[in-house]
Amino acid sequence: MKHILSALCLLTASFWSQLYNAQNTDAYIEVLGVAQDGGFPHMGCNKEGCNLAWEHPELRRNVSSLALVDPVQKKWWLFDATPDIRQQLHDFSQRHKEYPYLPEGVFITHAHIGHYTGLMEFGKEVINTKQLKVYVLPKLKSFLENNGPWSQLVSLKNIEIIPLTADQEVSIGNSLTVKAFTVPHRDEYSETAGFRMLTPKKRFLFIPDIDKWSKWNKSIIEEVKNVDFAFLDATFYDQNEMGNRPVSEVPHPLITETEDLFQKEPAAVKKKIHFIHFNHSNRILWDKAIQGKVRDKGFNIAEEGRQY
Ligand SMILES: [Zn+2]
Ligand SMILES: [Zn+2]
């Protein structure tokens, strides 16, 4: 019963925001996934949360990804190509029959599996796209061009790589711009980007992966103040989830750390934060008490299918 009620609440909230956006010509963000790279439930996981999600498909979550949707151009852009891209594009197309099935372009944060491997579905084995624009920073560009199977997408012109320069805006039409910036993260194959998307009415920030806010050369507090919605790395909830590992060794900001950092900020700043990129161990995925605690402190939790 509880599940049905919460599903109904989610449906109602999503219904009203979708109705509002349907009548409106303002560009908006739609969340296509909220989980960490391995999704929820996780392969091989038989712990509490995963077991619930194996049993109850409505609890399952796709890997974190956003769509920027422009009702004026009738185009949309994908932020991160995840292993769940097949489901995510299908779900998006069902909700937006008046839009093209494929995005106008794809922006990629970095070369960890949850963020770019969905590109493989664009190849000739599957949908065989023609010069689909893929926006990436320089190291990721070179990684895709020089390593299979990605290099085949380039040589067969399934994708056309559009190089981004960090901290420079690119225009995608109708006064919409996207700016990539770099953040500290495990950069084995590529640098790691975050994105700032500007529309005439709203400003968005997307940082699904970062080591620690303190390792960044920018102030996350100032960055959040300068946008209306910030979708931020919330891979882990708190120290308890980490067992005996010292927090300093955990290469993500814990939700409780981000909450503490923003503790003294006004409610209007805190509510801009929408936590995303949840590891399968993060109780925020299934524990209503934890979800309530986060919301009571004035923060938001990104919801799949919801528009912002
Ligand atoms: Zn990730
Ligand atoms: Zn990563």
Descriptive overview:
The protein is globular, with a radius of gyration of 19 Å. The chain is an alpha/beta fold. The strands form two sheets. Strands 7-8-9-10-11-12-13 form a seven-stranded mixed sheet, with helices on one face. The protein is built from ten helices and 13 strands. β4 (105-107), α4 (113-116) and β5 (132-136) form a beta-alpha-beta unit. 28% of the residues lie in helices and 20% in strands. The mean pLDDT is 94. The longest helix has 21 residues, at 2-22. It has helices at residues 2-22, 48-55, 85-95, 113-116, 138-146, 150-155, 220-225, 255-261, 267-270, 288-296, and strands at residues 28-33, 65-70, 75-79, 105-107, 132-136, 159-163, 169-171, 177-182, 193-198, 203-207, 229-233, 273-276, 300-301. This is Pyrroloquinoline quinone biosynthesis protein B. Keywords: Signal. Residues 1-22 form the signal peptide. Residues 76-274 form the Metallo-beta-lactamase domain. InterPro entries: Metallo-B-lactamas, RibonucZ/Hydroxyglut_hydro.
Radius of gyration, in angstroms, nearest whole number: 19 Å
The major sheet is characterized as: 7 strands, mixed
Tell me, briefly, the overall form: globular
Mean pLDDT: 94
Helicity, in percent?
25-40%
Instruction: Count up the helices.
Output: 10
Cα-to-Cα separation, first versus last residue: 28 Å
| Structural classification | alpha/beta
Q: N-to-C SSE series?
A: HEHEEHEHEHHEEEEEHEHHEHE
Give me the count of strands: 13
Q: What small molecules are bound in this structure?
A: zinc ion
Going across the major beta sheet, what is the strand order?
7-8-9-10-11-12-13
Q: Uncertain regions: pLDDT < 50 for 5+ in a row? A: none
Taken as a percent bin, the fraction of beta residues is 15-25%
Keywords: Signal
Domain Metallo-beta-lactamase: 76-274
Pfam families: Lactamase_B_2
InterPro entries: Metallo-B-lactamas, RibonucZ/Hydroxyglut_hydro
